[in-house]
Amino acid sequence: MSSTEPRRTALDALHRALGATMTDFAGWDMPLRYGSERNEHLAVRTRAGLFDLSHMGEITVTGPQAAALLDHALVGNIGGVKVGRARYTMICRADGGILDDLIVYRLAETEAGSSHYMVVANASNAQVVLDALVERSAGFDAEVRDDRDAYALIAVQGPQSPGILKSLTDADLDGLKYYAGLPGTVAGVPALIARTGYTGEDGFELFVKPEHAVELWQALTKAGEGAGLVPCGLSCRDTLRLEAGMPLYGHELSTSLTPFDAGLGRVVKFEKEGDFVGRQALAEAASRAQENPPRVLVGLVAEGRRVPRAGYAVVAGGGEVIGEVTSGAPSPTLGRPIAMAYVDAAHAEPGTKGVGVDIRGTHESYEVVALPFYKRQK
Fold first, then answer.
1. N vs C: which end of the chain shows fewer Cβ within 10 Å?
2. Strands 7-8 and 28-33
3. If you average pLDDT over residues 10-28, what whole number do you get?
4. Cα 84 from chain centroid?
5. What whole-number distance in Å separates Cα of residue 328 and Cα of residue 282?
6. What's the CA gap between 303 and 28, in Å, rounded?
7. CA 340, 162, 149: angle at the middle one, nearest 5?
8. pTM of the model
């Protein structure tokens, strides 16, 4: 296979048998949709959806100084994460620009004092994150290992997902909090069961060996028959995360933005011990943001039917450019087009009307709303 051909997940043949429309995503051949992306989206909001996320990048960090390495390499306080818990964080450049947003799981601690973490990076940035962690590990008694081929990742998301999973595992799902993970077996398959997701719904992400992926997918499909579970592609994953106001790297996050520019300064933990990559630049970005607020990430809801896309200019009543759309799509839940955009602070107040998006020369009218667009009822 030539290096230019996309990689295939362990579930590839199954996706094709289900009639999925496939697409190249970050060098992987991934299912975009199986039928109607709107139906897949609404299934996750009301029942349950099944996703193949095996393109995500798993990196294992182990050793006596694994925590110290991650505290140095990332902006979060990783040493403070308890075994069995996960944390949303970021890895930044020395100038404070965001290289990627990550979820870090603390999986185990040995009696000898060695820690075991799993860092999950976005597919498009996995190599960049791996290279940065390896480079930043110099001088630490810790090992950074590329485990992208060691895992398949299957997610079951939606209000029916706990019931579906409970029928296949004796793991304590009731005791499993959001952003926590525990080892268990699902349908006889050893898995890391994580209560995480990218949809705005309750749900689980199951990390398993690739050779167990088909068996697990089929067991989940069978268990979900009565609950209305459907296979879901990347297209509805994007509209689900957009409604939930969750940032996507390359859209809301990039190397040209610091976490403070993205309104996610809370992930930067200056109070942790020791230096970390980007500390100085991020401290300056934090004080700049207080004195002169950067553009604010807001929600936009269309008054008409035209859909805004990433890169479109946001304009004020007089036509001056006040921001830029980062993500846009029709919202199946709201029944109207929505977008996330960075806009000047003066126009960021929720309820602001008369803001326009320049769609091919026409200024379509939008209302500014607070993110997220959608929040599930707990």
1. C
2. parallel
3. 97
4. 19
5. 29
6. 37
7. 70
8. 0.97
